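quick one before i forget lol
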Amino acid sequence: MTAGRSRTFFASMLAVAFAASLQASFADEWHTTSSLIGPSKYGENFQRYDYVNPDAPKGGIYNSVVVGTFDSFNPYIVQGAPAAGFAEFGGGLLYDTLMDQATDEGSVSHPLIAEAYKYPSDYSSATYRLNPQAKWHDGQPITVDDVIWSFQVLKTNSPMYSRYFENVTEAVAISDREVEFHFSQKGNRELPKILGDLVVLPKHWWEGTDASGKKRDITRPTLEPPLGSAAYKIASFKPGSEIIWQRVPDYWAAKLPVKIGRENFDTQRFTYILDDNAAWQAFTKGGLQDLRPENSSRRWATFYNFPAINAGDVIKKEFKTTSPEPMQGFMLNQRRPLFQDRLVRAALTYPFDFETMNRTLFYNSNTRTQSYFQGTELASSGLPKGKELEILEKYRDKLPPELFTQEFKLPVYDSPQSERKYLKQAVDLFTKAGWVIKGGKMVNAKTGEPFKFEILGSSDTDQVISSPYITNLRKIGVDATLRIIDPTQYINRRNNFDYDVIIGILAQSESPGNEQRDFWSSKAADTPGSRNYSGIKNPVVDALVDRIIFATDRDDLVAATHALDRVLLWNSYVVPQYYRAVVWIAYWNKFGMPEKQPSYRGADIDSWWVDPAKEKALAAKYKGVN
């Protein structure tokens, strides 16, 4: 072991030991800042984020464009397309949560509705103490009853919250400010902390009646603006085409540490446009979209040459990120018989030529995704060993034998001969699975049924990604097609698993836990609205998910996650695509912003503000720019 590696090894061991001691010291004591990995850099005395401008001016309009339409202000159910500003997980612009996830550290949360929390050493429960200043926009206090009611309705109606809090059996009032959550099992180390992610909804409003005297129903879509508690409320809307949010002037939490220097825009306006090309044109002209996060490498490299860019009135900026990279890929829906054979799924991995696409379409800006936990110590590599191997040995007879003897590697198209090589390997796997090429078509050797599937997409980017893959698939007789539908239809079909293949994105944290059920569990596979896009029903995966959730310490968590990652990869549930460890943002030069932005997130737009002088200059130069 070299000196450098030795220092890294012992530093890692110290971090694990410190995290374990930290968790032990937390037991049965009230604490504010919570962390799953180690102490927050701010400690327990969090005053504000170190990158924000505490004197950032309030005011101005922040304009955004959204592709598609909306028909609901209730994001916590499967039905309907929620309006911009709402979030299916978390509170969005309208609601506050018990704690607020940190913008500049992974797996850390700071106080919001709850001012402190505690839990016993066996992790059998968690208690949250509410801030007595917390109130709804109508002036009524946020109560323990609101918290209990929110937990009950979200666990019942939201697929995401249902699995996230699966081991939480009940919430009970301890006092008028304390609520205790009881767990079905001990040892779920993550659960006390992530209960802080619970969004709190106003029980008295949802159980009341609307202007017509009709009782409200939390289980149904609605276009009645709900009562909220956060920094914004709905000022006006045009169903399906526009929603305007107004900052609440007497927002109860405005001076809390997590809010200082943030949420500075007086107004946030979202205008709906039917397709991405129209949205792009709107951005170049100004007035409807002030800021554009860019996902297209081609557009970033070649399209940003319109007059406002050349004049310096629109700025391109790259923000580096340090957070884990998401798994983006073609999700093969095993609810379709066509994809239930692992050999078939593995075969479909080989025709994806990332290297050529990256060179010819993406300007070499992307990196191939090799793990479901890319960019973290949780990503598997090499051959299984140590505790990971010990975990996997229990399931050896239920796992692909190659998992134990071969390093998982995706095809690399690095030479002119690569295409022939990998397409032949794909054909060989199809042959083993009972498929043959006849008349140029891949067909079932017994039934003659053609191998045919549809990729469902909702944007031009989906077409860019899918077209080269489809071309290569057709070279081996696979009849793959792409269908682009509008975003609302896409969301509904995705929620109901009505597709053969979609391009999905699954984001991970540095401390995976209860959310893994929503990604991979057999129960989630049958629950509309879950993120188990591939329809995975694998007892080994279920067992490994539970092993992660009930890991005894960080070392155990890392080993269990390595094992899950390896099992997912070798079962080829997804054709992995790529990631980019930067955030690309182009914006009209009307903003002020802190010199530093949080590298974990890349950019915190909530810490920006409208500069009146810049905005006035743009308005004089470009008609319609706010």
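fyi The first helix runs from residue 3 to 26.
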